Amino acid sequence: MSDLETFRAETRTWLEANCPAEMRQPVRDEEDVYWGGRRAKFKNDAQKAWFDACLAKGYTVPAWPKEYGGAGLAPAEAKVLRQEMSRISARPPLSSFGIWMLGPALLHFGTEEQKKHFLGQIARGEIRWCQGYSEPGSGSDLVSLQTYGEDKGDHWVVNGQKVWTSYADQADWIFCLVRTDKENKYKGITFMLFDTASEGCSTKPIKLISGNSPFCETFMEDVKVPKSYGEGIPAYVGEINRGWDVAKYLLGHEREMISGADGGNTGTVGSAMSRHVAKSGDELDPVLRAELAMFDVDALAYGAMGEKFLDEIKVGKAHPAQPNMMKYAGTELNKRRHELMMSAGGSRSLEWESEETGGGKPSRNWLRTKANSIEGGTSEVMLNVISKRILDLPGA
Amino acid sequence: MPLYHDEDQAMLADTATSFMAEQGNIKDQLRHWRDRDCPDGFGHGLWKQMAEMGFTGMLVGEDDGGLGMGHVEAGIVLEEIGRNLTPSPFLTSSVLAATALKHGSNDLKGRYLPGLIEGESVFAVAIDETAKHRPSRITTRAERSGNGFKLSGSKSFVIQGASADMLVVAARTSGSDDDEDGITLFAVPKDAANMSHNSVRLVDSSMATHTKFDGVDLDGDAVIGEVDGGREVLNAMLTAGRIGAAAEGVGVARGAMDLTVDYLKQRKQFGKLIGEFQALQHRASHLYSEVEIARAAVIKAQQLLDGGSEKAELMSSVAKAKVARTAGLAVKEGVQMHGGIGMTDEYDIGLYMKRDRALQEFLGDAYFHANRVAELNGY
To answer: What are the residue boundaries of the Acyl-CoA dehydrogenase/oxidase N-terminal domain, all occurrences included (chain B) (predicted)?
Structure first.
């Protein structure tokens, strides 16, 4: 047996012993996932048991090095773990922007002490992070951001406003882009980390068309951000005034994540929807069936693309602008998926508050997907990037 | 296996790219033969050169004198054929017929494979009986007669049927028209008596025949595989052919896209390069995304087939449908973005549109394959 096959067998045994049955069901909404943080509560004992087991094994962040709280898995092993978890529909033990976004940035740009300090907290789910990128008037156009941090020697005094700070109302800390040099458009931004409980920092949820409020506005009035949290632990990632490099690196990760390139966005809907329609006593309209079939073709093809993309990234074969293409295609696909699911559900899926729809999940989820092609850079911005960086079109 | 070409495959791709661009290009092949009203629709000289390159027998096993390569490798050649719109019997002979002959007797292999490997022989496949691909229904019949069979019926749109030295014919030896069982595949030689071809030129300048079998006498050893058990061989042949056609279609899509993107960088209107207009940039970028995704679907299907996975069948339909949609988009956008000159015969973009149209129909269009994806997924 190859090492990888041994690892797969061990992983199966471990999952069998440690993943509770309640955790082997697809995630239906955010409550089904543990997000960590100072105020976090487990939904039930199974969720806690699963989290504890994964934490002990380093499986909250399996691919991170052991010294930072991970399991130090090689990419091929991490893939096996993902496959095995997905085989039994295991829920992620911990979800957070710390894992998906700040973590990769720290791993790439952080100092040794900084990594030990922050990555460990993230892996243990102690601190829940939110992201402070967008501002009113500067969405995808991040270089135009206005939030300003005035240099006061050992600290900055930060003033400004962030918007679309996802789950900021439940977050403990923020990773935030702050202008620290007004003269230089690109090289005047610093990637800062600070506690949202700091004096002068406040957050207000924004109610969305889905009726939910996953996004917030975050206001900063004379917030004092120290330049360091201890020996070798700067309060910023990378270099002062070079936060743009970090932001760009991180946006690549975000786009991959939103695009579902990791395999989360490749599911077909035809068979599930046809069963759903049949259960409600209706017949599947042949034209809808045809649309579902065409969608499934696109979803399966996109699944192959996701696999190819990850394979190519591992060996440095992917074009650096390829995440933009994945983000564009993946989010448009996901919007189409939910349009079709609404159609297949018919009037039932319109119910906004009923028990049958779990409090309007189909329609709320459908509305939520409309943001996919806006957040993390709009589809139009993605197409601009492809035009410029891949197709090399003039003036793009 | 990672979803990209390994080193050997990348080397083959380099070789195939330069060979097809030099020898198989539009001016020297497609236009050349078309403008001479060539009754074959392709050049035998190039076929011979492809044999010298080792392409013709790629999918033939080493024991039978071939290279024993896989569908990823055949797809590399097909993508370049598509990109250059090269008229060639590669898909019908080296992919479809070669796949069928894998299931043939040693006698059959010995009779036909050396000619294929040498580039001396050309094979066709006769499956469809109507204008749309519908292999579930086979009405052409082969009755037992003496030591062999008597073949009666007709086949439509047999690509290169009149040029072929041998036709792989799917016929019914028992059961009724729509039965899964009762199909037998035959290798019918070119000079068989009572076989007639009505040749037609298709929109892409390729030649197809409506072929009639009016009591064609066949020896028992013309049977490929098992009598009455030919459906499995037919399906294997179709899966290989569909994945091959999808690979060629990706080449057509890329060729049309490259031509169009180049044009966007050269053509000026209103004092600007038209490639500066965001309306066109976004459409070009969308097309790029679709082409990349279609390519991924094709290589996935090729690898699954080479690996003997049962998922190859589903993925062959995904690939064929996705490519049909994508190449269709590429040629439509290509002609539109070229403007008026896109409508002229002088510019190549229209040739891509014609080839794509023919390739979409071949072995099932996007509707056929999306329907099959639905069926294989149980709805």
So the answer is: 7-120
